[in-house]
Amino acid sequence: MDWISPRTLKRLGMLNMNQRNVDYIARYNERSSYPLVDNKLKTKLVVAEYGVKTPKLLQVVKQQHEISHFREMAEELNGFAIKPAKGSGGKGITVITGRDEDNFVKASGARVGAPVLERHLTNILAGLYSLAGTPDVAIVEDLVESSPTLARYSHQGVPDIRIVVFQGYPVMAMLRLATTASDGKANLHQGAVGVGLDIGTGKSLNAVQFNRPITLHPDTGLALENIDIDDWAEMLEMASRCYEATGLGYMGVDLVVDANQGPLLLELNARPGLAIQMANGRGLLPRLRAIESLKRPHFTPEERAKYAMETFASF
Predict the structure, then answer these.
(1) Between helices 232-246 and 301-311, what is the axis angle to 10°?
(2) Which CATH class is domain 6-53+147-314?
């Protein structure tokens, strides 16, 4: 799939950016709901009311003077993640995976002292990573310990699963695997691997890097054709519940599988990208239109997830 003609893209039902922006984001996403997904702290609080688990919140840093409490809180911790509440694309996220005497060990293996992390918190509060450059809040979360069955496929970073949800229905999914090129982040634009997942089973379909098909992970060398996601039905139901939590008709739901706690929500995205179609080797449009044409929509997250598993496995 090195190059695809416009005619072939149309035949495959590929959703383009203009269609996404006009026909789905603008039409189905109320602007008033955006703050819920553009702020990770607000997301955590609202989805908890709908039974959607997220990584444990350890500390919220809102003011400069609160940074002094960070060192005390982190003293007993081996691992945690610092995130800007209003960051996007993984910017500003620092993951600590261990300790080396007085130093903290980052996911990359680099050692940093507490003053470095405190300066990072200051930068977050100043809005260095926020969407509009406005003052921000820093959140410190428990470290996600990725499920060993998935972690072995990824290079350094935690693999995550993006599920596109439309009107509460999971319509397409992919596994994102970090690489050397993506600097340990599960970001496809930076070079992470996208593995399309069968919505009916959670099994891998195709894999791409930089929108080109691959069969092996470029760093681990593992084959990407027989990946099977555990707790798949539960993950689809979690993604579906985010519709009630936010009211957003078209969104991306990013989940991880923790070794101890199972599926957890990382974040929501009101403007999910379109590369998920390349990873799946098929377009979103037929599935979106199938939902739009439903005469009797399903009302519970469980019903919507079941419908998606039964219907879109064959699309």
Answers:
(1) 130
(2) alpha beta
